[in-house]
Amino acid sequence: MPGLFDDQDRNDKKSYKKLITYFVAAVSLVMLLFLAVIYSNTKSKQDKRNALDNELMQNKQELAEELGSVSSDEYGNLKSEDLDFWDMYKDEEKQESVSENKPSSPRKEDKPKPEVTLSEDSIMPTVSENEAEETDPSHIKARAKGEEEKAYEIKENAKKNSYDFKGYLSVDQTRPEYNDRNYTVRRGVDVSKYQGTIDWAKVRADGIDYAMIRVGARGYGSGQLMLDDNYVTNMMGAKAAGLDTGVYFFSQAVTEEEAAEEANFTVGALMNYGATYPVALDIEWVDNDEARTDKLSAQERTKIAVKYCETIKAFGYKPIIYASRDMLIAGLDVDELKDYEIWLSDDIKPEKGTDYPYEFAMWQYTRKGHVDGISGDVDMNLYFISSKEK
Question: Which of 83, 204, 229, 287 could bridge to 241 as Cys pair (CB 3.0-4.6 Å)?
């Protein structure tokens, strides 16, 4: 029955071809679905990026409009190049990259710094005995702008700090650690537009707990107010990475009215972001040029600081005063600042702590720190939280 078998072969071949066709169609359909999913995800990510960019731009515009009602109209459209305070610090290598949040009157030692050697466990450095200097426990040396270093009497009634740097301070891979069970110590950075674009996720992963972000400044010659170019970007990025955030304002106020103006400017900028860490008034001398604050007395400067802090406090934020060791000793009256936390800048010998005798809560221990996610040098700090406050 040859004919019957031929028909059977033909039917088998047709069935086989149909099976191949169905298989190819099924594979094609799966591929189309796979490509559709990829396209959808890519488009979704792009939409999210566009939405974030739009939100960032909108926040900047809204913030600029809000601050227009805080300060004079003439300040609204200023750019950094319109002001004179951006180039106040000299840097032989790259002046424009230096953060303005630096102690402007660092202590200069008559002798070169002693060579520091680390012990076997790389914990505490040792200094040769012949470099030790005799000190008068009732006085401390400091230098005001335009003056020689001199001894200032340590005020008996002013609150003293109780840190035991000799007993609890150690050095872990160039970063000081303070291990005292009476304190919870958190590590932070302070940044401005000079740090450029920051990868905040990497900063958080590198052991940083909080960021003090520059909100703005007043020109030391012009007296004009200015929002930091990267303030909005830094606040959004740091918060998104899970960091606590505080802010600081570089002050050049010469009256209490101007101090209140700077505080209102700061509060206006915080309106959309808030602050989980203190709000700082940054008080510094301008060493390399004449500044509008040069003729202020310690008492006048202190009243200005108190006015800023009281205004900030009235809005529900926690004020703190940033200043160098020399400024705190020679340029301010610490007795009148006992109600506010102090953010001390002293990076002379961070491996040994600081000889500043009075109370302080935050310590800027270096201006040349290195943190993943930030290009170049960055200021680094420790925040001491007393166990009694927890």
Answer: 204
Q: What is the assigned CATH class of domain 81-386?
A: alpha beta
Q: How far apart are CA 383 and CA 25, in angstroms?
A: 65
Cα dist from 89 to 86, 102, 123, 286, 379, whole Å: 8, 8, 33, 8, 15
Nearest one of 321, 356, 320, 344 to 158, comparing CA atoms: 356
Domain locations in the chain as residue ranges: 1-68, 81-386
Question: Amino acid letter at 262?
Answer: E
Give the number of other Cβ atoms within 10 Å of residue 162's Cβ: 11
Q: What is the pLDDT of residue 19?
A: 72
How far apart are the C-alpha atoms of 381 and 377, rounded to whole Å?
A: 13
CB 313 within 8 A of CB 319: yes
Residue 260 CA, distance from chain mean position: 23
Confidence check: pLDDT of 102 > 50 = no
d(CA 273, CA 245): 9
- The rounded distance, in Å, linking the Cα atoms of 146 and 352 is 28
Interatomic CA distance for residues 170 and 173, integer angstroms: 10
Q: Exposed, middle or buried by CB within 10 Å (0-12, 13-18, 19+), for 85?
A: buried
Q: 295 with 331: CB under 8 angstroms? A: no
> Using an 8 Å Cβ cutoff, are 302 and 333 in contact?
yes
Pairing state between β 362-369 and 378-386: antiparallel
Report how far residue 373's alpha carbon sits from residue 174's, in angstroms, rounded to the nearest whole number: 18
